[in-house]
TrEMBL record:
The lineage of its organism: Bacteria, Bacillati, Actinomycetota, Actinomycetes, Micrococcales. The keyword Flavoprotein applies. It comes from Candidatus Microbacterium stercoravium. This is LLM class flavin-dependent oxidoreductase. Residues 25-374 form the Luciferase-like domain. The keyword Metal-binding does not apply.
Amino acid sequence: MTKRQVHLGAHFPGVNATTIWTRPESGSQIDPSSFVHLAQTAERGFMDLMFLAEGLRLREHAGQIHDLDVVGRPDTLVQLAQVARRTQHIGLVATLSTTFNEPAEFARQLATLDQLSNGRAAWNLVTSHGAFFGANFRRGGFLADDDRYARAESFADAVFALWDAAGTGEEVRISDRFFDIAARSTVPPTPQGRPVVMQAGVSPEGREIAARYADAIFSPFAAGPAAESFAADIRERLVAHGRSEDALKILPGTSFALGDTHEDALERARRDQWDQVSPATAVRQIETIWGRRFDGLDVDGPLPPLEDVVEGVELSAGRAKVHTDQRAQAAELIARAEAEGLSARAAVVATTTRRSPLVGTPAEVARIIDEAVQNRASDGFMLIPSITPTGLDRFVDEVVPELQERGCYRSEWEGTTLRENLGSARA
């Protein structure tokens, strides 16, 4: 029986809490050479794609620039264009919002990247929430959740129509409450016809958009019942939209920790978690939950009392939208700290850093990946290294050969385009 094949992607970190930029071996998060190094390493490891997240505005905390994370991100399309010139096979995923872009110009830009890369362009279809992001754009303001997703569907329909009309001279007309478009494609048909589409939302609306349009989905559920439930839900939605259960690749995002022994890997994972939550980071996380400042808080001591919570105050701006009950979240944190005798920082480490399933020796990690794919919990993983740009090097050197030995991972490319290598028919 032929084994299900593992698909891997490389997430260029930066707009997330995974990156450990304080270590001596960490390089620039914004220098073009860092993007090229990660992409070339991933390509050497026969990975399907490199994924770039996006930040439409610098993150803030209490009205000030959040200077404990990467401050800034070069333009996604320009960055991927220069990576395309330095690589030959790896897919190039741009995270671009349907909320603040316009379909005709957007379709032209992605089609141009697909031409430039000889068929390796991909779009991570996302929406943007809040007036915080909207302040950077002419329209300002923001859309209600229902309107965000309705606009995303109308936007995608228009973009797909323009891609499909490339080279025909036909005019694409879209007229609804979001757009009034009469446009013709200004670029010839691209190598993929349509660039590959990804989606990274977990809300019901996001899952529906993925099931309707996407070739792959970036999931936050890396292992266990949550991953299995998510995969089953996505496959049900695919069938409801008249697509095959295997029409969309499910790629959970996860960090990893490799060691010479299992114990060594566990220690590396533990050290990564603590380095990801510095004392200053712990204070800001606590302030975000409690809705107030705590200047001078000793993070080696206890958490602030529950009565200090100020509900309804959002100190942090620029993160992905998460609906939380601040008081309940604070109560949960306090209860865990008291039950386990944890300091404030230790409690934040225990509750806010994701525990990766990919911890062990290279052979152990290869086995975990293989089993997850054979059991249909996922189609592979989106790897998020903790160090930029060299954090993927050991994985490629030591885990990839183990996967190839297990017969679940390619040793040559299936085709010349991302769509061919991903094994994805057009949605």
